[in-house]
Automatic annotation (TrEMBL):
<dbReference type="InterPro" id="IPR036388">
    <property type="entry name" value="WH-like_DNA-bd_sf"/>
</dbReference>
<feature type="domain" description="HTH lysR-type">
    <location>
        <begin position="1"/>
        <end position="59"/>
    </location>
</feature>
<dbReference type="InterPro" id="IPR000847">
    <property type="entry name" value="LysR_HTH_N"/>
</dbReference>
<dbReference type="InterPro" id="IPR036390">
    <property type="entry name" value="WH_DNA-bd_sf"/>
</dbReference>
<dbReference type="Pfam" id="PF00126">
    <property type="entry name" value="HTH_1"/>
</dbReference>
<protein>
    <submittedName>
        <fullName>LysR family transcriptional regulator</fullName>
    </submittedName>
</protein>
<dbReference type="Pfam" id="PF03466">
    <property type="entry name" value="LysR_substrate"/>
</dbReference>
<dbReference type="InterPro" id="IPR005119">
    <property type="entry name" value="LysR_subst-bd"/>
</dbReference>
<comment type="similarity">
    <text>Belongs to the LysR transcriptional regulatory family.</text>
</comment>
<keyword id="KW-0804">Transcription</keyword>
<keyword id="KW-0238">DNA-binding</keyword>
<dbReference type="InterPro" id="IPR058163">
    <property type="entry name" value="LysR-type_TF_proteobact-type"/>
</dbReference>
<keyword id="KW-0805">Transcription regulation</keyword>
Length: 319
């Protein structure tokens, strides 16, 4: 069996959802398409496709194999083009992962620019607040907050995020003045917890050279920062958030910064990708574009005291 031909045939069947359509595109009989896929399944020792008289569908093994198969074929095509000296626009499927807030407020609104600039790249963007394994899940690259301690990944540092504290105007009016971080010890707090360990994320606050470590644990803990922000807008209490994720809520008067001169310990943001993998043109193109875009996006470089100024200006504006 020609493994590469079988992989290309299988990938074509998956992409077009039909043995007949794959046969037409490849210029070979339908029986040969079916035989190549069957030979591939026999060599791998797993069933890749479920077949009925009306449709075909991927098995769980087939889904995992199809993703890796497509990446291998794209890499081979790009490598051959490079060796032959062919210059062309990057193309192929690109699987990207990022955190929910980054996807919603930073990456998704700008992807139309990337799509129009590189029309032959198909982007699959996944938004999660949990860290996934890039190699096991067939992910080309990811944008992540926090330190990178995985030696299997290459990491490009983009910036640092200074998360501040926010609450609804109604809650703060009832709570009263907040001049020093010690007042947080008697406030209602909406915190985050790590779903892998069920442990609360600590609140290490900084203001210049000053520091304050919150002694009490919030009674309300969520594993999704976006959900914590939603709870805070309804008066649940004070919650940490990245300035870029709550800027619109501050402008709308639904949240106000709390202790704006203080912020949580800065969290680095990296673009990461497997260190052991050949970096294809499409991945390299996306990494360069994302790095430039995030470096220049003013929203990403906001700090809590910047939003305090925005909030005060909004409350003082004439309707």
């Amino acid at each position: 069996m020609d493994k590469l031909s079988a992989m290309r045939t299988f990938s074509c069947v998956v992409e077009h959802g039909s043995f007949s359509r794959a046969a037409d595109l490849l210029g070979i009989p339908k029986a040969r398409v079916s035989q190549r896929v069957a030979d591939l399944e026999k060599a791998l020792g797993v069933r890749l496709l479920n077949r009925t008289t009306r449709a075909i569908s991927l098995t769980a093994d087939g889904l995992a194999y199809a993703e890796q198969c497509r990446q291998v074929l794209d890499s081979i095509e790009e490598l051959e083009a490079r060796v032959m000296g062919v210059t062309s626009s990057p193309k192929g499927r690109l699987r990207v992962e990022t955190q929910t807030a980054f996807s919603r407020w930073i990456l998704s609104p700008k992807l139309i620019e990337f799509r129009d600039r590189y029309p032959q790249i198909q982007v699959l963007l996944g938004a999660h607040h949990q860290v996934r394994n890039l190699l096991e899940d067939g992910i080309d690259c990811a944008i992540r907050g926090g330190p990178v301690d995985d030696s299997s990944l290459s990491a490009l540092h983009v910036m640092d995020v200074h998360a501040g504290l926010y609450a609804s105007p109604g809650y703060m009016q009832d709570f009263g003045p907040t001049a020093e971080p010690e007042v947080l010890e008697r406030a209602d707090l909406v915190g985050w917890f790590d779903p892998r360990t069920n442990t609360p994320r600590p609140w290490f606050l900084r203001s210049g050279a000053a520091a304050y470590d919150l002694k009490r644990t919030p009674r309300l803990l969520l594993d999704d920062p976006e959900s914590a922000v939603a709870a805070a807008t309804m008066g649940a209490g004070i919650t940490p958030a990245s300035p870029f994720a709550v800027e619109h809520l501050v402008r709308q008067g639904r949240l106000v910064p709390v202790l704006p001169q203080w912020h949580l310990r800065p969290q680095p943001v990296h673009i990461v990708y497997p260190a052991s993998r050949f970096l294809s043109a499409r991945v390299r193109t996306f990494v360069d574009w994302a790095f430039q875009m995030m470096s220049n996006d003013a929203k990403l470089h906001l700090r809590p005291h910047d939003l305090a100024v925005i909030g005060n200006a909004g409350r003082g504006a004439t309707p």
